[in-house]
Specification:
The complex is a heterodimer. Chain A is mostly helical. Helices cover 73% and strands 1% of the residues of chain A. Chain B has 2 domains: 52 residues, no CATH class; 208 residues, Orthogonal Bundle (MetI-like fold), CATH 1.10.3720.10. The chains are: A mainly alpha, B mainly alpha. Chains A and B meet through helix 1, helix 3, helix 4, helix 5 and helix 7 of A and helix 1, helix 4, helix 5, helix 6 and helix 11 of B. Chain B: This is ABC transporter permease.
């Protein structure tokens, strides 16, 4: 067939322009920004080239707080959400009645506006003028002492953030795992049954290896997603996350760029690059680990 | 033994259903409570005997919630429309046409999928500011148009259309352009519907970009609009009116989801990554 160089180029042109201007150029530019010292958006000038921006960011106490918050969020939410999603998917897979009804319900958080529903969580955990809020009421039913979740100690706020994050990410995980479980060939189970294999052995020797690619896919995307957490924290604690002690790394980047403390694209760029260096490292580790343990047909 | 396990399974499923649904219930319930009655509760009430629509009236009159909803609708439709158009053209070139450097370019496209949006937002913010497009719809829309993933998804679908159709059309003297819109697009409609809905959802929930690029409430979308309402809208304490606004923001998406449940869930399973 004849080459259609020019015609194809025309078809690709709109996509190339959009991607070039808003994806490729910014990617290069963000590295340049991060090395320009003392860049000012007003005069568009800078003093010199160097690592000062990185140094500044790494010594900023707000950055440290954001780093700690983000790591805690990742370490808590990824294993818990994946674990619960696996349990629920196994349960869903074992019932026939109401399955698609429940799947629909479980998927609802995915199609909600993170900011809007986050405010509902704030209301659930927040004290009202004369009561300590719904969640505290439930806590008191089981005879524990109430906690000021929204304005109290750091760990209480962190708990709310983790809880909301898990609630938000569950639909995706349940969806992926239920379809993975449903695609395991019945024959394996039938053979195992004839052999009289115990159900725990079936789970560890058949089910788990068969769904391990999906499971690792979820772990990897889960890590990436949790490292990029931001909107959920804004929804719960408002835009001034530094004051609430609840900032995340992405939040730190945008605070540097804009809002009251903003106007420093260089610091923002340096912080963003540090964040994605961390994400890249963790993803590579994940992939190396998965190579050893994941069963790909 | 067997029945005990069954009880546990149903218990787990029921508990998770309650955890998922309870916030929605509480949001609707609170939005129907009267402001005074809500604040006077010593014990949070799980139902109300005197529902009021006062909060909804307040949500649409005291703050420009209607405007935010219209803005978001306009933004979502234009962005999605542009995205679908650009995506169809690019996917067609990759699936159907033969040109120099095709494989290299397609590989580069795939590599672009790995660029995190957060990294490029910084420069885009500076670009849009320098173009003087802050607080405009153009500034909101332009950087949100392209999605490499959707180009990939549609290309895969286009590639499945049998070659014979194309050659038959060529024999009849049909141009590529006509063939694309008269044959390819109708055949791949299900994928296009999925892509469209996923993009609309994405637009509806977009928060970071609009919050950076607009500080004039005239151009707020629902996400930063509702954030604004929370921080300075009805006075911080008017939770029922705030919940009415939250319901108004959530209902359109939930309705969309219930209509297109199958397409949305299969689309997300193929490549959604929120989580």
């Amino acid at each position: 067939m004849e080459k259609q160089n020019w015609k194809a180029f025309l078809y690709l042109l709109p996509a190339l322009v959009f991607l070039g201007v808003f994806l490729v150029y910014p990617l290069i530019d963000v590295f340049i920004y991060s090395f320009e010292e003392g860049y000012s958006s007003a005069s568009q000038s800078y003093f010199g080239i160097g690592l000062f921006n990185y140094e500044y960011v790494l010594h900023d106490p707000y950055f440290k707080q954001a780093l700690i918050n983000t790591f805690v969020l990742v370490i808590v939410t990824v294993p818990i959400s994946t674990g619960i999603a696996l349990l629920i998917s196994l349960a869903l897979n074992s019932v026939k009645k109401l399955r698609s009804f429940l799947q629909t319900i479980y998927f609802l958080p995915y199609v909600t506006n993170t900011i809007a529903v986050g405010m509902v969580f704030m209301v659930l955990f927040k004290e009202t003028p004369y009561s300590q809020g719904v969640v505290n009421m439930l806590i008191q039913w089981v005879h524990l002492s109430p906690v000021d979740f929204m304005e109290g100690p750091w760990w209480a706020k962190m708990f709310v953030l983790c809880f909301y994050t898990i609630w938000i990410v569950m639909p995706f995980k349940i969806l992926i795992l239920t379809s993975a479980l449903a695609s395991v060939d019945e024959q394996y189970y039938n053979v195992a049954k004839i052999d009289g294999t115990s159900s725990s052995r079936i789970f560890f020797r058949i089910t788990l290896p068969m769904i391990s690619p999906s499971l690792f896919y979820l772990v990897i995307t889960g890590f990436i997603g949790a490292f990029k957490a931001y909107s959920d924290a804004v929804a719960l604690f408002g835009t001034n996350l530094n004051a609430a002690g609840m900032n995340t790394m992405v939040g730190y980047v945008f605070d540097m760029l804009y809002r009251d403390s903003g106007g420093y694209p260089s610091y923002a760029s340096a912080a963003a690059i540090i964040l994605f260096a961390i994400i890249l490292t963790i993803t590579i580790i994940n992939l190396l680990v998965s190579k050893k343990h994941v069963h790909y047909n | 033994m067997k029945s005990k396990k069954k009880v546990l399974v149903w218990l787990l499923l029921a508990i998770w259903a309650i955890i998922v649904l309870f916030p929605f219930y509480w949001m609707v319930l609170t939005s129907l409570k009267e402001y005074g009655a809500y604040n006077a509760e010593y014990i949070p009430q799980f139902f109300t005997l005197a529902p009021t629509f006062e909060n909804y009236i307040q949500a649409f009159t005291d703050v420009p919630l209607g405007k935010y909803l219209l803005n978001t609708l306009f933004f979502a439709i234009v962005t999605t429309g542009l995205m679908v158009f650009v995506t169809i053209l690019a996917a067609f070139a990759f699936a159907r046409m033969d040109f120099k450097g095709k494989n290299v370019l397609f590989t580069l496209f795939l590599a672009l999928m790995m660029i995190p949006g957060e990294l490029v937002v910084i420069t885009n913010f500076v670009t849009i500011t320098e173009l003087d497009l802050r607080n405009t719809f153009l500034g909101l829309i332009l950087p949100s148009v392209t999605s490499v993933f959707y180009i990939y998804l549609l290309r895969e679908n286009f590639a499945q259309v049998p070659d014979q159709l194309y050659f038959a059309a060529k024999v009849d003297g049909t141009s590529d352009w006509r063939y694309l819109w008269r044959v390819m697009v109708p055949i791949c409609m299900p994928t296009l519907v999925t892509i469209t809905i996923l993009k609309v959802i994405e637009c509806w929930n977009l928060y970071i970009w609009p919050s950076l690029i607009t500080d004039d409430p005239k151009y707020f979308l629902v996400s930063n609009g509702i954030q604004q309402i929370r921080e300075s809208g009805f006075g911080r304490a008017n939770i029922p009116a705030m919940m009415a606004a939250v319901v108004a923001v959530s209902v359109p998406l939930i309705v969309l989801f219930l209509i297109f449940r199958k397409q949305i869930m299969s689309g997300v399973a193929q490549g959604g990554t929120k989580g």
